[in-house]
Amino acid sequence: MYLVIDIGGTFIKYGLMDTEGNLHCKNKKRTATENLIAFKNILYEIVEAHDLTNIKGIALSCPGTIDVNTGKIYYGGSYPFLHKVNLACDLQEKYGKKVTIENDGKCAALAELWQGSLKEANDAVVLILGSGVGGGIILNRQLHRGINLSAGELSYVMSNIDIATKKGRFVGNDCSAVKMVKHIAEIKQLDDLTDRVAVFDYINSGDKEANEIFDEYCLYIAAQIMNLQYILDPELFSIGGGISSQPILHERIHWAMEQLRKENPFHVAKPVVVPCKFLSDANLYGALYQFLKGMKKGGEIVYE
């Protein structure tokens, strides 16, 4: 068995998986965001709650820019105190188990490559819609990381710039699912501005105000899909994230792409867009796949 751990913004999810990708059990524990010591203590509690004699290794999914060769985290996303911290090395030394670590968005892409929507594709793009837009680029069935380890981080792409101020408009803001949900929740005066279920109830019921915001959101996503189709020309795009479980999202993205082609006749590309197979468990599967890939290469995982 392998202990797989997905470090999220609110919870750390974890479970036991085998080499075939069967998830035998899973649980979650609220994370600590105040400082590194409190954060590590939660992580240690999770590891020590398991019988380590039966654990062959530990696979981590974590926010931030991750150097999978050294195990070091940069920036840390929601956890700025993780900048330049080596969690993999720490756990490996503490528990004597092999440990791997990978970026959370890239874990989702690896999950789809391994057993999901990309298992028959050579070249593809995974877009994970959350607070920003993460994911991964698959080229020749390999995750493409780039020289600065930031390939696939669409949030940092500028969709426009103000010539006078030189300030950019970013995809991470335009295509933020969290921001879209909050905007609709505010317009509809919901008590909980994160209530995704209530927001999609409004969208699915045909509410005019909610659908105007949702349409704009889907057009922004469609525009970036079209851009990426011309840049990378992949076989398909797979869309994930919490809102990807809503069928209307995929219907409306296809509608948005048709609108862009209609109003911009020079567009000849017709991207193939599908939903991700894995939803909330995607990062667990991807983290394990990253671990197993390292083992197949026969190399020892040694961090300095």
Description of the molecule:
The mean pLDDT is 93. The protein is of the alpha/beta class. The protein is built from nine helices and 14 strands. β2 and β3 form a beta hairpin.
Number of helices: 9
Helix fraction, binned, reads 25-40%
Largest sheet: 5 strands, mixed
- The count of DSSP E runs of length 2 or more, i.e. the number of strands, is 14
What is the oligomeric state here?
single chain
Query: From the helix content, strand content and strand pairing, which structural class follows?
Result: alpha/beta
> Rg to the nearest angstrom?
20 Å
Mean pLDDT: 93
What fraction of residues sit in β-strands? 15-25%
| Series of secondary-structure elements, N-terminal to C-terminal | EEEHEEEHEHEEEEEHHHHEHEH
Taking pLDDT < 50 over at least 5 consecutive residues as the criterion, the unreliable ranges are: none
